[in-house]
Amino acid sequence: MSSEKVDVNLTVNGEPHSVSVEPRELLAQTLRERLDYTSINIGCESTLCGACTIHVDGKAIKSCTRLTVQEDGSEIRTVQTLSNDGVLGDLQTAFSEEHALQCGYCTPGILMTVDEYLDNNPDPSRDEIRSEALQGNLCRCTGYENIVDAIDVASDALEE
Amino acid sequence: MATDSGIGSDVQRREDRRVLLGESKGTDDINVSDALHIQFIRSQKAHARFSIDAETAREMNNVVEVFTPEDIKQCETSTPLPFRLFAAPMPGLDYPDKALWQRCFADKKAHYHGEILGLVVAETQRIARDALEAIDITYDVLEPALTPTEALASDAPAIHEEVPDNIVFSAGQGDEASVAEMFEQASYTAELEKDPQRLSPSPLEPRSAIAAYDTASGHLDFTATTQIPHAYRRLMAQMLAYPEHHIDVTVPDMGGGFGARQHPYPADVLLGWCAIELEETVRWRATRTENQLVENDGRGYEGTWEIAMADDGDLLGVRADIRYDLGAWVAWGAASLAEAGNLLMTGLYDIPTAYSHVTGVVTNTARVDAYRGVSSVPMILMLERLVSKVAKQAHMDPAMVRKQNFVEPDQFPYQAPGGALYDSGDYERNFDLGLETIDYELLREKQERLREEDRYIGIGFACATEVAGLGPASHIDAPSWGYGSVQVHPTGDVTVYSGGSNHGQGHETSLAQVAADELNIPFDDVRVIENSTKEVNEGVGTFASRTAALSGGAVTKSCRKIISKGIEVAADELAVPAEMITYDDGEFTATTENGDIQSFSFDEMASKVHLGQNIPDDMEPGLAAETYYDPENCTWPFGTHIAVIEVNPTTGEFDFLDYVATEDCGVQINPTIVEGQLIGAIAQGVGQALYEDVEYGEDGTLLSDSFRTERVGSRGGYTLPKAEHMPEITICSTETPSPHTPHGAKGMGEMGSIAAPGAILNAIEDAIEPFDPEPMTPPISSEKIWRAINTEGT
Prior knowledge:
The complex is a heterodimer.
Chain A: E1 6-12, E2 15-21, H1 27-34, E3 53-56, E4 59-62, E5 74-77, H2 90-97, H3 107-120, H4 126-133, H5 145-159
Parallel strand pairs in A: 1-5
Antiparallel strand pairs in A: 1-2, 3-4, 3-5
Chain B: H1 16-20, E1 36-42, E2 48-53, H2 55-58, E3 63-67, H3 69-74, E4 109-110, E5 116-122, H4 125-133, E6 136-141, H5 148-152, E7 167-174, H6 176-185, E8 188-194, E9 198-199, E10 208-214, E11 219-224, H7 229-240, E12 247-250, H8 266-278, E13 281-285, H9 288-294, E14 298-299, E15 301-309, E16 315-325, H10 334-343, E17 353-361, H11 376-393, H12 398-405, E18 414-415, E19 421-422, H13 427-438, H14 440-452, E20 456-465, E21 482-488, E22 494-498, H15 507-519, E23 526-529, H16 547-574, E24 581-584, E25 587-591, E26 597-601, H17 602-611, E27 624-629, E28 638-647, E29 654-664, H18 671-691, E30 707-708, E31 718-719, E32 730-733, H19 751-767, H20 782-789
Helix pairs in contact in B: 10-11, 11-12, 11-19, 15-16, 18-19
């Protein structure tokens, strides 16, 4: 197994970082372990639960199965970019008001997934929220209903 | 003053903000720069003698140590003890042989896929994983027994030589003769088999822990994913033979528990042992696969359930013969779980007699223990299926049979034949609300009409109760009180220390509501602390729907002690007898005989008592109260769940059309949180009914060792329900306060997972009734429905 390190440049939430990683190191590991972006949660290591979802170059991706060396030069956004100086964004506010989280482990990933989804489909039906927006995310606590409500409310707020 | 945020208010949760901002911190998020990383050597075989060659791994760069069973046993300074947890001795059941209590590591023989055979300590997690791959294990494979039926077969292998028949306990509970008599008298009887479906609680955050040993102080500091920080400390002290006051446990934000983390695991003990042995900080994080392999499963019952009904629809008796899969070792709750199930054999009905025979069996599988709803789930599931089935046999409406048999409000406290003493209830009112909300009569008409158009909808009921707020101490052989202490600061601000363990339930909000309400002060003036043995003196943790009733009860009682002291101070200050003082809106008020009103605020009182000047002579300064609340009884919340499902008989495909749940958990502290807990638990019930199943291969290899997102009949992976699998749910509630908790709350965290599977199965069976289907066992798939209908040619 090659353990020769490779230099990788990443911009995370607007801040440039240079890291030197083994080729096998995963993006989620680099961001969590080296750069302390611990809002990225690793629930399954297999692209199934979506807790590690972040934006890479504007697209929502699951960072638990991306190799860091693939992402040299990437612009990365985490859930921290959805708020502004501690003021929650519309989607976050809706999640809080609708009680759309319990343990919160899946929440940052869901927020990043939905943030991208609403860009492409700003006024989804409840069925679309269930079967499209939340297709790739698991939540074990909420039963999803309040998450659907929150996305519904946030999409209404977007329209206004 | 507290009315807009006190008990009964839909206050937004305080814990949300840090999550939404991406600032919450779990155990694995904590950066410890000098920690060593542990990986466990785990058995790849379900039943095998083994030997380990770790020489190559030991010589690898940056590998600190490799411990095999031989090495662990040879360490003289600290040897992990057998897993010694308290199984409750119960009438009729022998205490499980200590030889069967879970060991921290296998010695010469592995008993299940994933059992710990040793551990690797390395500088980084990746190096520890590389070293694990370099370890050579030789197995001499033995035949495994994977289900109770297999383990009870005459030619079954003995999993432990101490119990050659694999039976750990076997006992009957209830009055067998009177039940038999009822079955003879009955006009109608129904019987159902249950497969040993096992569920994985599957919190989304995999387990992890950090154990830090401080050489200077001899202090052992754990950070861990557990639901029971204080009990974890006590058990670590016991298992590591280490002074309890030199151990601390902190639980950061945790990604779910659901019962799977209400007791420590061998991995936790070995981490502590390793930290002491190496005098270092060590950490471990489970992979998802490792988590699914060894985190305890739930359910695992198999057996036969029967019900007897009289000609007029009166239910006469229930009986069951249950084989309980314990896994390879006896986990702490094993025997008591079986007993708790018997408690609920008659559910919400006034059924005169019940009998169950329970056989606890070891198998070559991971341990089975608590999972949301525990053994209430199969009891209620089977009872509710039987009630619907026997009603159909008698051509009676299943709703009417239920209404006819409910325990009535004037029967409380009600002594159920299984041993439970239900505290309060109005089951029919709750059920009627459900019928009204779903529009039952119209639905039945619609069902008839649609059948003429070759469309099949079914209406399924499940009425349930759960054992919430477990107590009193005289009945439970483990600490079961609620702990709550309240510290009033000189400013009048308040810190509440609760012995619960928040991991998604919203205690930082709901317990603040309890204190604000009781003390009549603003919600924002109260802060709640849990999850740390450093900050909270004692606690039992959060499981079995206990915190609202027990920590909430303890906090309420502590607040009342504070108000009592405040009244004494106010009486002294205002120079009137204490009987003349009232406390309302944050003010102690005295109305003198001539009508003068004098008042003294909570904040002034707090400041005065803190200073300690001019307080009554026999009074100590300071304003704090601590309560260990031992309840008179458990609380018995209840509810009605109604599912409406359409089935396509040609393909077996099904869809939810509606789902109504009416909850009664007594006084609701925060109705939004109650609703959220209920819907979340229903989702786990949907998983049990339709998707989830722990699968072992024939050789005992766990197949469902990762998540998967679609259930297509193939093997491998564990299917958690997704958003698209869930119905839109309507929640409504009735309120029957608990007569014995100080604030009337009952607890409710498990009701959804207890009731939902029965409602869903009954709805599917109701839909396809015209086809006279074969019985089905969960998880129900389209294929199973199709096969149940199309019995010819399969």
